[in-house]
Amino acid sequence: MTRIALRTLVSALGLAALSSRARAQADTSNTPTLVVFLTIDQMRPDYLPRFEKQLTGGLKRLYDQGAVFLNGYQDHAITETAPGHSATMSGRFPYSTGIVTNSAGVEDPLAPMIGGGGPGASPFRFRGSTLTDWIRLATPRSRALSVSRKDRGAILPIGRQPEEVYWYASDGRFTTSTYYHDTLPGWVQAFNAKKIPETYAGSAWTLLLPAKEYPELDSVDFENGGRGVVFPHPFPANPADAARAFMAYPSMDSLTLQFALNGIQSLGLGAGPVTDVLAVSLSTTDAVGHAYGPDSREIHDQILRLDRYLGIFLDSLFKLRDANRIVVALTADHGVQPNPWAHARATKGVPVYVDLEPIIATTAERLAAHGADPKALRVDESMVTVDRDLLSRAHVDADSLLRTFANDVKQVPGIQRVDRVKELTKRDTVTDYVARRWLHMLPPDLPVDLVITLQPYAYWEGSIPATHGTPNDLDARVPVIFYGSMIKPGKRDDVVRVVDIAPTLAKIVRVRPTERLDGRVLTQVLR
Ligand SMILES: [Zn+2]
């Protein structure tokens, strides 16, 4: 080959490379530059149609103009905040993310919070990857910001990558742990210096609309432990106390969204050309739902206020960045069941609280009588584990112990069923939602022998006024909403899972998941 021919070939190859680069640029010209992923802690999908006529803000925009699934499910058994958040952006169930309960969620004494104000936290228990990892791999310049009142709400949607992850300290600051930073960045310090929560001292949470717009009774004696059950709900008069109490008020969600907007501007997120991620988990619906219940006037007002805050947030964001290049997704980490007294009143029944302590005590006595360690059977939330070494040393048969324990528990009113974990795979997981949700829950290396499921509407003894955590539909059902110029709007009846969100967003931002997912792309929402 002559020198000239070689040069021609090289320049032709160069041109080819150039034109393929130009093509790649053309292909990505309408790829979103920002994924906004919103989690509403304890949001039941029925709140949307229930309060629809009074929505005017961000929830209205998403409900009217988004692709809306009210039959979304956190399709796993322990419907708590940490496992729910681990499923959102990973596209995988908790058996795969390794996040099984709140108590074994993100707490990590080796990663203390900067400036204190709560336990240390990190994603060290989280296994595998998330949407942020897949985007980062495709475009290393992409960045992610995650914000919540709660550590687990901020940490788990992002996974293990040390991105910009912030949550609320009990003294009124947003901070992070040493897993992410050694000191707080200037923009976070500047936001904290405004001391916004302190300015609420002496004011009160009042109704947004005139009282006649709320059909719920205000004075309900079983709300909030019987204390402060009517509007207005005052903030403490002392500024430091107001900052601490702030977490349980609607304005906490407003503050979280203001902080997120501040972060978008300070970090330059969503300005292109690559795709960035903003994850926001809003926690007050959970606080208000626990204290007052899903049927309260307080949850009604919280949802209306959340709608207004989200409206201001989205309007502000669309002024800062091109709305056509933003995709928004919204879901919840779990739902909630009514307060047992509220349910009993509505159904003319009796509240059902389940107490297993007497059975656990009798079992311990039986073990001791056989010369076995009484701690050889452990009950952790609704999971039961036996220590086979301890039992065999005392010649106690593990299977017959488990059988006796399970039979005793099954007799207790409010217990739906008790399953041997090794039997769960024999069930029809299409129709048996309890078996399916437990199978989606338990990592294969977690030693659990039995799982206990409450009947719908039954509560564990000692539960706070209203709560969640079971595999039953009121706890598992959540909204799943997509919104943006690339989304086909409309209300849909199909059953979808929260694990379907991450693969769908990955498709929209044109990246490939780097591992096998449990979720699938919801092609029906794509334009
Ligand atoms: Zn909760």
General description of the model:
- The chain is α/β, with parallel strands linked by helices.
- Helix content is 35%, strand content 15%.
- It has helices at 3-27, 47-51, 58-65, 81-88, 94-97, 131-138, 151-155, 186-193, 239-245, 251-267, 284-292, 297-320, 340-347, 357-369, 388-393, 398-410, 433-439, 473-476, 501-508; strands spanning 34-40, 67-73, 144-148, 164-168, 174-175, 204-205, 233-234, 276-282, 326-332, 353-354, 377-380, 383-386, 415-420, 450-454, 459-460, 477-483, 490-492, 496-497.
- Strands 1, 2, 3, 4, 5, 8, 9, 16, 17 and 18 form a ten-stranded mixed β-sheet that branches.
- α3 (58-65) crosses α12 (297-320).
- The radius of gyration is 25 Å and the shape is globular.
- The chain starts with a helix and ends in a 19-residue tail after the last helix.
- Bound molecules: zinc ion.
Output the keywords.
527 residues; 4-stranded antiparallel sheet; 18 strands; 10-stranded mixed sheet; binds zinc ion; 19 helices; globular; disordered N terminus
Q: How are the elements arranged and paired?
A:
Elements: H1 3-27, E1 34-40, H2 47-51, H3 58-65, E2 67-73, H4 81-88, H5 94-97, H6 131-138, E3 144-148, H7 151-155, E4 164-168, E5 174-175, H8 186-193, E6 204-205, E7 233-234, H9 239-245, H10 251-267, E8 276-282, H11 284-292, H12 297-320, E9 326-332, H13 340-347, E10 353-354, H14 357-369, E11 377-380, E12 383-386, H15 388-393, H16 398-410, E13 415-420, H17 433-439, E14 450-454, E15 459-460, H18 473-476, E16 477-483, E17 490-492, E18 496-497, H19 501-508
Parallel strand pairs: 1-8, 1-9, 2-17, 2-18, 3-4, 3-8, 10-15
Antiparallel strand pairs: 2-16, 4-5, 6-7, 9-16, 11-12, 12-14, 13-14
Helix pairs in contact: 3-12, 10-12, 11-12
The structure holds zinc ion.
